[in-house]
User: Fold this.
Amino acid sequence: MNPLRILISNDDGVFAEGIRTLASAAANRGHHVTVVCPDQERSATGHGLTLQSPIRAERADELFSNGVIAWGCSGTPADCVKLALYELLDEKPDLVISGINHGPNLGTDIFCSGTVAAALEGTLEGIPSLAVSIASFNWREFDYAAEMALNISELAVLRKWPKNLLLNLNIPPCDSSKMSDTCWTRLSVRHYEEQFSKRKDPRGNTYFWLAGEAVKDLDSAGDGPTNWPSDVAQIERNGPSLTPIQPDLFWRGGINQLPDLDLINQLVR
Assistant:
C-alpha cells in the first residue's frame, strides 16, 4: 500500500519501549511517522485536558529510529493528539495509533485509559484510530503487537474505515506461537476489590493509595453480538482481543427503565 502519514501517541511517555517499538515498525514499512506523546508517564489520566497551565513540547527525535519525527509534550495523552493535529503537523494524518501500552486496557477500564483517550481524539476528528495494549504490566516483548497493530490498521484503512469507529486491540502476554486467533470482542464490565489502601505517613497522618485488583470476570460483557466473547475472556484464552468502540455513549436500554420525568416535574413544581 502507499505510505501513510501516521501519528503515534501513548500514555506511558516518550521513553516507553512500547511506543518506540511501534514507531520503528511503522517507519520500517515506509510510513511517515510522527510521535507526539507525554514527556513522562501519564497513565490513567483518561480524557483529561490541560486548561490551567501551559503545554510545552520539545523535539525528541534522538529517542527514536531514523526517519521518525518525535515530540515530548508536557500535557496529557489527549492534549498530545490535539496539539499534534492543530499545531505540530503540517498535514492531517491518515491514521492515529496509541500505544503500545504497558498493561491491559480491557472493558470499562477504557474510561480511565490515557491510551484509549489519545486514540479517541483521533476518532473525534474523523481520523481512523486504534489503541493497542499488551495485557500485562510485566511483558516486554512488543514486536508482535506492533506488527499486528499495523496489519489491522493498514487493512482497515484500505477497506474504508467507518466513521466514528475506534478499534481497541489487546494482545495477550505470551509468545505468538501460543496465541489463538484474533477475535472480535465485547467490552467487559470491570470490577475491583479493595480499591484503596489506607496508610499512615511518618507523622501519623492518614493517606490513601489507590490499589485494587481487578476481579477476573469472564462472563460479563456489554452490548454487541452475544456470540462475541468479552475482551477479558478472550485474553484469558491467549487470544488477541479486538473491540470496536464508538464515542456515542447514549443509553441503549428501554425508555421505560428511565426515571419518570412527568413525576419529577410534578415534584419540583
About this structure: The chain has a mean pLDDT of 94. Residues 7 and 96 are 5 Å apart (CA to CA). The two ends are 64 Å apart (CA to CA).
